[in-house]
């Protein structure tokens, strides 16, 4: 927007307001704020005078403290921010850092805990599936052995060997030792 005499008046009024609020004295008037070297880019310096004392200017430290204390009011009056309205030698008033409602460490802890729980669940489920698959294979193998028990040899049904306990051939089994051993 254009910087004109009305904007200068508003700036002087805001500085006078800041000085009155800071020092709690009502002697500072708009006429006590002097603007010097105003340029087209709205760059200038200003001085605050004190007519109640014999001193012509108010110390710079008092003016800086008053501006710092009321900076948000001055920025609001001009609809500006600390990035657009800059006072040299006066540090900008930064807003406090935003703190999340949940601490960051708690979020990280929750993510890690969820990953661990998901891993444990995965291991348990895969173990159960492997166990079921192994049991299914073993029962299929036993069913095959049971089916092969009766075999035909030369058209005559024969008993299959019991592979687990073995098979005793009755021909060579001697009930009594009639025959000489070989």
From TrEMBL:
Transmembrane segments: 104-128
GO biological process: positive regulation of amino acid transport
Domain Collectrin-like: 1-182
Main subcellular localisation: membrane
Domain of life: Eukaryota
Protein's cellular compartments: Cell membrane
UniProt membrane topology term: Single-pass type I membrane protein
GO cellular component, one term: extracellular exosome
Transferase among keywords: no
The entry's keywords: Cell membrane, Glycoprotein, Membrane, Phosphoprotein, Signal, Transmembrane, Transmembrane helix
Pfam families in UniProt: Collectrin
InterPro entries: Collectrin, Collectrin_dom
Entry protein name: TMM27 protein
Lineage summary: Eukaryota, Metazoa, Chordata, Craniata, Vertebrata
């Amino acid at each position: 927007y254009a910087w004109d005499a009305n904007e200068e008046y508003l700036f002087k009024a805001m500085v006078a307001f800041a000085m009155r609020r800071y020092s709690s004295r009502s002697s500072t008037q708009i006429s006590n704020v002097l603007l010097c070297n105003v340029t087209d880019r709205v760059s200038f310096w200003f001085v605050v005078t004190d007519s109640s004392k014999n001193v012509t200017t108010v110390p710079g430290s008092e003016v800086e403290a008053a501006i710092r204390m009321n900076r948000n009011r001055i920025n609001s009056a001009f609809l500006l921010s600390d990035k657009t309205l800059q006072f040299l030698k006066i540090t900008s008033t930064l807003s406090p850092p935003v703190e999340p409602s949940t601490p960051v460490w708690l979020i990280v802890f929750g993510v890690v805990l969820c990953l661990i729980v998901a891993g444990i669940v995965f291991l348990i489920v895969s173990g159960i599936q492997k166990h079921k698959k192994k049991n299914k294979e073993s029962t299929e193998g036993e069913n095959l052995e049971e089916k092969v028990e009766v075999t035909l040899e030369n058209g005559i049904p024969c008993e299959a060997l019991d592979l687990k306990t073995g098979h005793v051939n009755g021909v060579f089994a001697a009930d009594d030792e009639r025959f000489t051993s070989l």
